[in-house]
From TrEMBL:
<keyword id="KW-0472">Membrane</keyword>
<feature type="compositionally biased region" description="Low complexity">
    <location>
        <begin position="421"/>
        <end position="432"/>
    </location>
</feature>
<feature type="compositionally biased region" description="Basic and acidic residues">
    <location>
        <begin position="447"/>
        <end position="473"/>
    </location>
</feature>
<protein>
    <recommendedName>
        <fullName>MotA/TolQ/ExbB proton channel domain-containing protein</fullName>
    </recommendedName>
</protein>
<feature type="region of interest" description="Disordered">
    <location>
        <begin position="416"/>
        <end position="512"/>
    </location>
</feature>
<feature type="transmembrane region" description="Helical">
    <location>
        <begin position="6"/>
        <end position="25"/>
    </location>
</feature>
<keyword id="KW-0812">Transmembrane</keyword>
<feature type="compositionally biased region" description="Basic residues">
    <location>
        <begin position="500"/>
        <end position="512"/>
    </location>
</feature>
<feature type="transmembrane region" description="Helical">
    <location>
        <begin position="37"/>
        <end position="59"/>
    </location>
</feature>
<keyword id="KW-1133">Transmembrane helix</keyword>
């Protein structure tokens, strides 16, 4: 039952039709004509079932879905093969029945012929006894002669019959062999003719399917390689983005350092303002005796203040522009990086390299420009301050020498005044007036010179302290050279070295 349940409904119907026709041909209509016609009918039905199964298997065969269509094709081929086998077995059963029946008839005829010869021998023996008993010698002799002739004739007849039997057996065997051979040859020819194209097409389809699988295998390998390459590129893009974040942090650190530099510059500007205030107070005190110097110093002070303000303004503008440029550059780089990561399958690698090169060049240019601007501004400020110091020293040094001479003269006046005063008492009134008048201005000049020298020494000491504090830690090799006229300043017999301005010290540190 399990064997029959494995057949499809179409296969079962074709096999039942063949079995019914086989029983019908073996039954009431069996004859020599049936033997000749039935095998062809049964074979044709089997071949029809074969073609029907193949046609049904190939009817819904989809070349784009070979794996899904193969089971249906196999089911159709199963129907085709089993129907062909059933038809061939039915045809062979009819042929074999005819052959077996023909052999049995031949054996029956052979047995019947042998029994007749025995009967004749028995009858001849009886006839001989009768003749011997009757005494009819002549008749016996004649009969004996006839019997011998008959025996010879029967011997020849038996030989002929034996040859005939052998020939019949050989002919039947050859006929059966040739019939089976012809049947198998015809079946093979029909199978070859009818199924050859189908099997060739099936073979071609299987070959194309194998070729498609090989191509799909190659494409799958390429796809895996491409996915791996995309993964490597994404890793590189991630590393580049991390590097860009680090650069952005470095930009922030540079901005903070620039803020510290601005704070230092502001402090230096405040210190310079206090220094200029002290210098202005000194100049105002000495304005009575030095009107020309006051005007020049005020002009230089205003010029220096304007230069400082301009430099400070330029420095602020430069730092503001630099900060805005850095911020815009960081924003542009981040946007460009996001865009390149979205287009990573097409051009992300080259774009990342170009972006990194462009950022590096821009940073180098920005760093160089900032360094050049800072260096230029500091050098300009230091040069202006140095020129102002040199001008102040060159203008103030002769005045100091004159004031020192006045002090020396005034120091000599008290010892010589008393004799002059005593002599004036005994002389005329007109001759005694110039002496007190002369001594009084000299004393005033001496007091004024002392005050001026004290203020000047105090200002120089404060300036030296501020300069030493601001220039602490700087390398002495990078300091601006001291002008020959400003190397020493003599006050009260001491030589006080004149130091360069804070701006020059700052410029030296920046250059280092």
């Amino acid at each position: 039952m399990d064997f029959l349940a494995a057949f499809s409904p179409l296969t079962s119907v074709v096999i039942l039709i063949i079995m019914a026709l086989t029983l019908y041909f073996h039954g009431p209509v069996y004859s020599l004509r049936t033997v000749n016609a039935a095998p062809s009918i049964l074979t044709s039905i089997g071949i029809f079932g074969t073609f029907l199964g193949v046609a049904l298997g190939l009817m819904d065969f989809d070349t784009t879905d070979i794996e899904g269509s193969v089971p249906q094709l196999i089911e159709g081929l199963k129907t085709a093969f089993w129907s062909s086998i059933a038809g061939l077995l039915a045809a062979m059963s009819i042929k074999l029945r005819h052959v077996i029946k023909h052999v049995r008839n031949y054996e029956t005829e052979t047995k019947y012929t042998g029994a007749t010869v025995d009967d004749l021998a028995t009858l001849l023996g009886d006839i001989r006894l009768v003749l011997n008993k009757s005494g009819l010698a002549d008749i016996g002799d004649n009969i004996q002669a006839g019997t011998k002739g008959l025996e010879q004739h029967l011997g020849r007849l038996e030989t002929v019959i034996s040859q005939y039997q052998e020939e019949m057996v050989s002919a039947n065997s050859n006929a059966l062999t040739s019939a089976i051979t012809e049947l198998m040859t015809s079946f093979n020819d029909k199978i070859t003719v009818q199924y050859g194209d189908n099997f060739r097409q099936l073979n071609q389809a299987v070959g194309r399917m194998v070729e498609w699988q090989e191509n799909y295998k190659g494409e799958l390998a390429k796809l895996l390689e491409q996915q791996k390459a995309n993964g490597d590129v994404l890793d590189k893009a991630t590393e580049a983005y991390q590097t860009m974040v680090q650069h952005t942090q470095a930009f922030n650190e540079v901005s903070e350092k620039l803020g510290d530099v601005m704070t230092g510059l502001q402090q230096q500007s405040n210190s310079l303002g206090s220094y200029l205030d002290s210098l202005a107070s000194l100049v105002s005190k000495a304005s009575d005796g030095l009107p020309a110097l006051e005007g020049r110093i005020m002009a230089l002070t205003e010029e220096l203040a304007g230069g400082i303000r301009e430099s400070h303004k330029q420095m602020n503008d430069l730092l503001t522009q630099t900060s805005a440029t850095i911020e815009k550059t960081v924003i542009t780089v981040n946007r460009q990086l996001v865009t390149d990561m979205e287009q990573v399958n097409s051009r992300h690698h080259d774009v990342m390299l170009q972006m990194l090169d462009r950022n590096e060049k821009q940073l180098v240019r920005m760093d160089n420009a900032m360094e050049q601007e800072l260096t230029h501004a500091l050098q300009t400020f230091g040069g202006q301050l140095t020129a102002l110091s040199e001008k102040f020293v060159s203008d103030y040094l002769p005045l100091t020498e004159k004031l020192r001479q006045v002090v020396q003269i005034s120091a000599q006046l008290p010892g010589e005044g008393r004799p002059l005063a005593g002599a004036a008492k005994g002389s005329a009134a007109g001759s005694s007036r110039p002496v007190p008048a002369t001594a009084e201005p000299q004393a005033a000049k001496s007091d004024s010179a002392k005050v001026d020298n004290t203020e000047a020494d105090k200002i120089r000491t404060d300036s030296m302290k501020v300069d030493n504090t601001r220039a602490h830690g700087a390398d002495s090799a990078v300091l601006a050279p001291v002008p020959p006229a400003a190397k020493t300043q003599e006050a009260g017999g001491d030589h006080v070295p004149l130091r360069p301005g804070r701006r020059a010290a700052r410029a030296g540190r920046n250059v280092k």
